């Protein structure tokens, strides 16, 4: 730390000189001034030169006329090498101790995942070196699937990214102090911000809302002068306060000295031993284990695995991606880069490997998945010692691989279902944090808040039921078999299959299972009385969402009951089978098919109600529904009048059903987000609970997600809450014009203790003594002007000079309370109101 700080002190004078000398951002001919850009120029950094000391000794050939001179030259080269290595270590220490924390807290909060502006991912050295790209990943109108550009998957060398139209944001010309700032997009963006700071206004004007936010621009260094003239307020951080002087000096010093970043270090022995053990389990040679490992991989490829027993030694823990490789344990991982996890590997043997995650953890993609003894014992039971035999490994052809009911029919159904239920939160979280970071088209198919229950896995093990599902394989085919470029008209084919499946299923239950024995509370999985994944709450926040364990908030409008076949298809529709780079047909077909799966989950819940209440309840869920949905429901539903097996005693069966389910699941209900877990005074908690009663038009004024920090007497221990807006809809089957389908009078809110969601829209900063004032203000809001006045008193707007100080404190609290689940939030949704 001392050496890196000394390095910064010595370099600050140079950096300040460069910044002041370049303040006018005068236009220069970049190529004439600094040479032509090529990744090899950055490769010839001190790290490269230190490895080849002869290149650093200009007079070595002249001096090597005698053995004495050769010896002298060798000594000089060794000394130079040692000096360069020490210098490089200083630069790496400086990056790690000083530059990286600023990049994470000021840059990564906007530049991560597919929705990073200009695809610039600053969450890793590899992402920064890769640079930016003008093409948008989220493009719902493209006719053909785009080329995937996944970091750590589709390319690895900088030159490969240049060939994929990524341009540098660091200097790739002559490596001098001046070039390292003047020929660097990052440096120029920082200088532009310094020259044109955020206006001294509480709300950003049209220069922000009408330019880069709505119309993303991605200037190369060659285009930067013109860009700076046309968008002088576009410096970074964009639409937020600039860095303070010290932060700016640190980053400019780092850039001026070549922006060197250390490579990932080797794993500690304990970690490597754990990796080797898990890989040995997954890569056993038997056909049973090869198929089981394929199943495990296709369900966990988007998660962040970690070894729970090692977390006490390292917090946050070392996370890993489970990947396919052509090489076994002990050799360097060689990624098999398919669009989907079940694409043909084009190799005789697939090895499942753990790839260490070296990127900064961001909350919007973070799915922590603990590997522990209890889990491994269950995997052993489900996949190793279970009584089954795999006679032949299934094909990777799309019509087989895209349908898990076909590809994995040789694995026990109970094993597959229990595998997904064991971490059901992670299973459902996959379609929110898996292949995508966000996407309204993928999410406007669900209600803003609903509860999820699961059918008991012992029911899925019924021989009759397994035989029925085996006969339905053709009707249960998945849209992903059409690949990434397809036509949405294929929807009709899948709609007919789904209708045939539902008719067959209803007929099966009507004739095969009598007296409602499968439609009782006991048929709902209770987590075996220990697993808190037995119930979930899903929150939708317009184009992003959150899933958490437990039944959070007041009783919702709708709920799902998910059985094995439905859970499997949700995963293969929205996670394993979804391609964010796919064309409009693929994405639209995915969205339309999800309508069927939502209806199926809702129908399972409705089946627990008395027969005479089912249609009435369904009709209330789909007010003003389009004729397409109405026709589908009528066509696909054979009359299902079998009684539920539940003896209802009230005039409100749905409310009674919710209460019965709550009682059934009470032993496994977590209280993590309950207001009662707050350490505020009982009076403060009672006041906060009143916010949950706000309803209707005043709720519609609020943004999707409001994160609230409450300051207590202990200034170092603030309490954090999240206010979630639940937007009501007449129905959620409308593909377009969602605003026309809003049922504003039934909007509600859910206030939870802790942070929910990855994309905050608004921040409030409140003293505990002012909670009563905040609650009254929220209760009395009627107009957007009232909301603005509330913000004037309590908000930390994106224009607030103390914005970054608040952000740092919020993230510190988040990471302290959630060292495993926590990650950097995304500020791309922050409003300016």
From TrEMBL:
This is 9-hexadecenoic acid cis-trans isomerase. InterPro entries: Fatty_acid_cis-trans_isomerase. Residues 57-66 have a biased composition (Low complexity). It comes from the Bacteria. GO terms for molecular function: isomerase activity. Coiled coil: none annotated. Transmembrane segments: none annotated. Keywords: Isomerase. Residues 39-76 are annotated as: Disordered. It comes from Psychrosphaera saromensis. It holds the Pfam family CTI. The keyword Isomerase applies.
């Amino acid at each position: 730390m001392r050496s890196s700080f000394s390095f910064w002190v010595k370099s600050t004078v140079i950096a300040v000189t460069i910044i002041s000398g370049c303040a006018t951002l005068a236009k220069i001919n970049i190529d004439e001034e600094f040479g032509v850009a090529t990744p090899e120029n950055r490769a010839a950094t001190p790290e490269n030169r230190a490895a080849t000391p002869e290149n650093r000794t200009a007079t070595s050939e002249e001096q090597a006329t005698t053995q004495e001179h050769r010896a002298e030259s060798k000594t000089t080269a060794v000394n130079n090498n040692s000096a360069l290595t020490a210098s490089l270590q200083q630069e790496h220490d400086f990056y790690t101790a000083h530059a990286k924390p600023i990049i994470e807290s000021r840059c990564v909060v906007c530049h991560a995942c597919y929705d990073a502006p200009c695809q610039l991912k600053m969450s890793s050295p590899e992402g920064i070196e890769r640079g930016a790209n003008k093409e948008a990943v989220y493009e719902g109108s493209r006719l053909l699937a785009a080329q995937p550009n996944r970091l750590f998957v589709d390319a690895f060398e900088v030159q490969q990214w240049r060939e994929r139209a990524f341009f540098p944001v660091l200097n790739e010309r002559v490596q001098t102090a001046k070039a390292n700032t003047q020929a660097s997009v990052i440096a120029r963006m920082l200088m532009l911000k310094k020259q044109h700071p955020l206006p001294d206004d509480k709300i950003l004007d049209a220069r922000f809302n009408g330019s880069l936010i709505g119309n993303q621009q991605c200037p190369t260094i060659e285009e930067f002068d013109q860009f700076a003239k046309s968008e002088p307020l576009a410096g970074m951080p964009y639409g937020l306060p600039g860095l303070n002087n010290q932060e700016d000096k640190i980053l400019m010093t780092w850039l001026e000295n070549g922006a060197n970043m250390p490579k990932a270090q080797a794993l500690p022995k304990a970690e490597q031993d754990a990796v080797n053990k898990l890989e040995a389990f997954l890569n056993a040679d038997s056909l049973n284990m090869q198929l089981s490992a394929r199943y495990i991989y296709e369900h966990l490829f988007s998660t962040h695995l970690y070894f729970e027993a090692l977390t006490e030694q390292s917090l946050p823990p070392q996370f890993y991606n489970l990947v396919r490789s052509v090489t076994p344990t002990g050799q360097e991982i060689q990624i098999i880069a398919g669009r989907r996890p079940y694409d043909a590997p084009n190799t005789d043997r697939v090895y499942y490997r753990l790839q260490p995650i070296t990127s900064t953890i961001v909350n919007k993609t973070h799915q922590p998945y603990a590997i522990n003894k209890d889990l491994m014992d269950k995997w052993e039971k489900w996949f190793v010692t279970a009584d089954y035999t795999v006679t032949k490994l299934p094909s990777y052809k799309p019509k087989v691989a895209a349908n898990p009911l076909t590809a994995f029919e040789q694995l026990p159904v109970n094993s597959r279902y229990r595998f997904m239920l064991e971490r059901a939160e992670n299973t459902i979280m996959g379609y929110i944090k898996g292949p995508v970071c966000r996407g309204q088209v993928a999410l406007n198919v669900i209600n803003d808040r609903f509860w999820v229950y699961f059918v008991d896995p012992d029911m899925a093990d019924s021989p009759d039921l397994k035989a029925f599902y085996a006969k339905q394989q053709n009707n249960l085919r998945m849209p992903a078999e059409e690949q990434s470029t397809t036509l949405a008209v294929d929807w009709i084919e899948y709609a007919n299959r789904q209708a045939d499946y539902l008719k067959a299923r209803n007929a099966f239950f009507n004739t095969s299972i009598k007296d409602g024995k499968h439609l009782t509370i006991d048929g709902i999985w209770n987590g075996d009385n220990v697993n808190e994944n037995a119930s979930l709450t899903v929150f939708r926040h317009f184009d992003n969402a959150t899933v958490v364990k437990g039944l959070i908030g007041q009783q919702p409008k709708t709920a799902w009951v998910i059985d094995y076949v439905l859970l499997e298809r949700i995963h293969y529709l929205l996670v394993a089978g979804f391609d964010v780079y796919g064309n409009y047909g693929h994405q639209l077909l995915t969205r339309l098919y999800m309508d069927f799966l939502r209806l199926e989950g809702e129908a399972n819940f409705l089946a627990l109600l008395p027969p005479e209440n089912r249609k009435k309840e369904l009709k209330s869920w789909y007010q003003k529904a389009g004729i397409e949905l109405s026709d589908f429901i009528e066509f696909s539903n054979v009359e299902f009048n079998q009684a539920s097996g539940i003896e209802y005693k009230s005039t409100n069966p749905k409310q009674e059903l919710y209460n019965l389910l709550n009682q059934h699941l009470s032993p496994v209900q977590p209280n993590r987000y309950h207001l009662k877990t707050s350490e505020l005074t009982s009076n403060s908690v009672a006041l906060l609970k009143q916010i949950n009663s706000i309803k209707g038009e005043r709720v519609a004024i609020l943004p999707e997600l409001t994160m609230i920090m409450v300051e207590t007497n202990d200034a170092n221990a603030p309490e954090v809450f999240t206010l979630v807006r639940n937007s009501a809809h007449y129905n959620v089957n409308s593909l377009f014009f969602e605003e026309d389908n809003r049922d504003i009078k039934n909007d509600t809110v859910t206030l939870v203790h802790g942070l929910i969601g990855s994309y905050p829209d608004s921040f409030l900063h409140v003293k505990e003594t002012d909670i009563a004032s905040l609650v009254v203000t929220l209760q009395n809001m009627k107009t957007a002007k009232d909301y603005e006045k509330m913000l004037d008193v309590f908000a930390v707007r994106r224009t607030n000079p103390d914005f970054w100080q608040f952000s740092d404190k919020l993230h510190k609290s988040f990471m302290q309370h959630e060292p495993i689940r926590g990650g950097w939030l995304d500020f791309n949704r922050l409003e300016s109101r």
